[in-house]
């Protein structure tokens, strides 16, 4: 809500603004209007701007007020990208996957693709409220948070499978009260899920699910 992205240095704990202008909401190229998702890659990082309907790319040496490059979406055009939330970039290909929350779908941009016309639709089967997305390194499997469940797709096939949760809010094992974030471990055997309403993180063993 302060319209910025901070970088935290582990050694000192100090926070530095690396994108946006503190307390000043706005639009491209240097301001955000409620930034939501962040993904850091080697030498760059990406930020989804949920109210301006875009994803920006910055270099890692960015500072307060630095201009970013729009890599997905168009200012205020929710038909291209609406209220983007979680984002994920596959290191080997540079493909950018976006949880298009406003349109209840997952979309993808390839490196260099036109932000306004380069969108590739990936999935929307039974999705309603999606806040995060993550993809395996080989880009074959996609996981998406969907309210009180996590759904799994084979990339290229728009058929959802419930991977975790039962779509009903709860605090029991394998239940979520608002699945909000995802992470894979380096071996891609475990999926971690931020269970926001229950104030916890759950871990799932992928081969057994």
From TrEMBL:
Report which superkingdom the organism of origin falls in.
Eukaryota
MF terms from GO for this chain are:
zinc ion binding
Q: Does the keyword Zinc apply?
A: no
Q: Which InterPro entries match?
A: 6-blade_b-propeller_TolB-like (IPR011042), NHL_repeat (IPR001258), TRIM-NHL_E3_ligases (IPR050952)
Q: Which Pfam families match?
A: NHL
- CDD domains linked: NHL (cd05819)
Q: Which PANTHER family does the entry mention?
A: E3 UBIQUITIN-PROTEIN LIGASE NHLRC1-RELATED, PROTEIN LIN-41
Identify this protein by name: NHL repeat-containing protein
Species of provenance: Didymodactylos carnosus
At the highest ranks, the source species' classification is: Eukaryota, Metazoa, Spiralia, Gnathifera, Rotifera
């Amino acid at each position: 809500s302060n319209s910025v992205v901070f970088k935290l240095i582990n050694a000192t704990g100090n926070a530095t603004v690396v994108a946006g202008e503190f307390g000043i909401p706005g639009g491209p190229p240097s301001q955000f209007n409620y930034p939501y998702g962040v993904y850091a890659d080697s030498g760059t990082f990406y930020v989804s701007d949920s109210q301006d309907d875009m994803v920006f790319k910055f270099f890692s040496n960015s500072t307060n007020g630095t201009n970013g490059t729009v890599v997905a979406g168009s200012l205020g055009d929710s038909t291209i990208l609406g209220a983007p939330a979680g984002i994920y970039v596959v290191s080997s290909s540079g493909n950018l996957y976006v949880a298009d929350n406003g349109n209840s779908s997952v979309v993808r941009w390839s490196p260099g693709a036109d932000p306004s016309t380069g969108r590739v639709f990936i999935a929307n089967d039974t999705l309603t409220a999606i806040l995060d997305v993550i993809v395996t390194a080989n880009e074959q499997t996609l996981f998406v948070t969907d309210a009180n469940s996590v759904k799994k797709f084979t990339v290229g096939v728009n058929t959802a499978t419930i991977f975790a949760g039962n779509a009903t809010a709860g605090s029991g094992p394998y239940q979520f009260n608002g699945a909000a974030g995802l992470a894979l471990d380096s071996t891609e055997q475990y999926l971690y899920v931020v269970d926001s309403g229950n104030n916890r993180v759950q871990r799932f063993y992928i081969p057994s699910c």
